[in-house]
Design a protein that fits this description.
Layout lengths: L1 E8 L2 E9 L5 H17 L1 H8 L1 H51 L1
Antiparallel strand pairs: 1-2
Keywords: Membrane, Transmembrane, Transmembrane helix
Length: about 100
């Protein structure tokens, strides 16, 4: 095991950063383990987010991209319906006129 804490020995900083736990006394190891457990319980969600942050970014970007593509397709279909309805009405009305003209 390695600890990333400031280790005090004889009231002086022996080392700051990664320290092998084998050189520490048992009391120091217990203190470090308690501090680690407190940190883990308070920030487990942050650790999870950091561990999978790139994955979440790609998933989020994919979802946003799918929403945008879906919105563009929906708008295109809506535009086509509006455009296609207008000529059909004119065509029907012109057919009715031509039938009326034929009857007369």
């Amino acid at each position: 095991y390695w600890a990333q804490f400031k280790i005090f020995r004889n009231e002086e900083v022996v080392r700051e950063g990664e320290v092998p736990l084998s050189i520490l006394s048992e009391g120091a190891i217990q203190v470090i383990q308690v501090e680690e457990s407190v940190e883990e319980s308070s920030s487990w969600f942050q650790n999870l987010l950091l561990k999978f942050s790139l994955l979440y970014f790609y998933i989020g970007a994919g979802v946003i991209l799918l929403i945008l593509v879906g919105l563009l397709i929906w708008l295109e279909r809506k535009r086509r319906r509006v455009v296609s309805k207008v000529p059909q009405k004119r065509a029907k009305s012109s057919r009715k006129k031509s039938k009326k003209n034929r009857e007369e």
